[in-house]
Automatic annotation (TrEMBL):
<keyword id="KW-0479">Metal-binding</keyword>
<feature type="active site">
    <location>
        <position position="154"/>
    </location>
</feature>
<comment type="similarity">
    <text>Belongs to the polypeptide deformylase family.</text>
</comment>
<feature type="binding site">
    <location>
        <position position="157"/>
    </location>
    <ligand>
        <name>Fe cation</name>
    </ligand>
</feature>
<keyword id="KW-0408">Iron</keyword>
<dbReference type="Pfam" id="PF01327">
    <property type="entry name" value="Pep_deformylase"/>
</dbReference>
<keyword id="KW-0648">Protein biosynthesis</keyword>
<keyword id="KW-0378">Hydrolase</keyword>
<feature type="binding site">
    <location>
        <position position="153"/>
    </location>
    <ligand>
        <name>Fe cation</name>
    </ligand>
</feature>
<dbReference type="GO" id="GO:0042586">
    <property type="term" value="F:peptide deformylase activity"/>
</dbReference>
<dbReference type="InterPro" id="IPR036821">
    <property type="entry name" value="Peptide_deformylase_sf"/>
</dbReference>
<protein>
    <recommendedName>
        <fullName>Peptide deformylase</fullName>
        <ecNumber>3.5.1.88</ecNumber>
    </recommendedName>
</protein>
<dbReference type="InterPro" id="IPR023635">
    <property type="entry name" value="Peptide_deformylase"/>
</dbReference>
<comment type="function">
    <text>Removes the formyl group from the N-terminal Met of newly synthesized proteins. Requires at least a dipeptide for an efficient rate of reaction. N-terminal L-methionine is a prerequisite for activity but the enzyme has broad specificity at other positions.</text>
</comment>
<feature type="binding site">
    <location>
        <position position="110"/>
    </location>
    <ligand>
        <name>Fe cation</name>
    </ligand>
</feature>
Length: 184
């Protein structure tokens, strides 16, 4: 099973690389990697297992974070209405997005970043996304709220971008445009 020691941390060069596209249908090895990432999120959200192994409760994990520079990530999150969004994405893309932005009022963190970095991270409020699942079947979804934020945070990892790259250096909590606050 994957543990916190398997997650590379800020400063590791892989986190700054643009990850490679994955062939479709996915190879057995890539399917196994995705399964282990899904298992990590499930374990990390289980109070007993996360305590036993010292896991941070994760809502998303991108392959580069386990030092695999491939365009794959998993997300496992419940939105404000209690709807679950459990997806494994291969070669994910945003095909369209709103002009309107949103942000988490408590800012963002990252499983690969051990310190807390204050500030708002503005993201597209609504996105339409496309990609492939573990079976190589196409996924097309419309996301908003927390699931949309998680998707964009994970997609950034595939492009070598960290959440704090988006934070205004001079004034971390400055809202330069109208945006929807999301409480978490
Ligand atoms: C997380 N969890 O998993 F909005 F119910 C973070 C950590 C780094 C604090 C563990 C998190 O934000 N949980 C959360 C957020 C909500 C509502 C809720 C739980 N990640 C995943 C990560 O680092 N992936 O690369 C960071 C998140 C920050 C915004 C989206 C992903
Ligand atoms: Zn992250």
């Amino acid at each position: 099973m994957l543990l916190m020691k398997d997650i590379i941390r800020d400063g590791h060069p892989t986190l700054r690389k643009v990850a490679k596209e994955v062939s479709i249908p996915p190879a057995a090895e890539d399917i196994e990697i995705l399964k282990s990432m899904e298992e990590f999120l499930i374990n990390s959200q289980d109070p007993k297992i996360s305590e036993k192994y010292g896991l941070r409760a994760g809502v998303g994990l991108a392959a580069p974070q386990i030092n695999v520079s491939k365009r794959m990530f998993v997300m496992r999150v419940t939105d404000e209405k209690g709807q679950e969004f459990n997806y494994s994405f291969i070669n994910p893309k945003i095909i369209s997005h709103s002009v309107e932005k949103s942000y988490l009022t408590s800012g963002e963190g990252c499983l690969s970043v051990d310190r807390s970095i204050p500030g708002y991270v503005l993201r597209h409020a609504r996105i339409t996304v496309r990609g492939y699942d573990k079976k190589g079947e196409e996924i097309k979804l419309r996301l908003r709220g927390i699931p949309a934020i998680v998707f964009q945070h994970e997609l950034d990892h595939l492009n070598g971008v960290m959440f704090y790259d988006h934070i205004n250096q001079e004034n971390p909590f400055q809202l330069t445009e109208k945006a929807i606050p999301i409480e978490n």
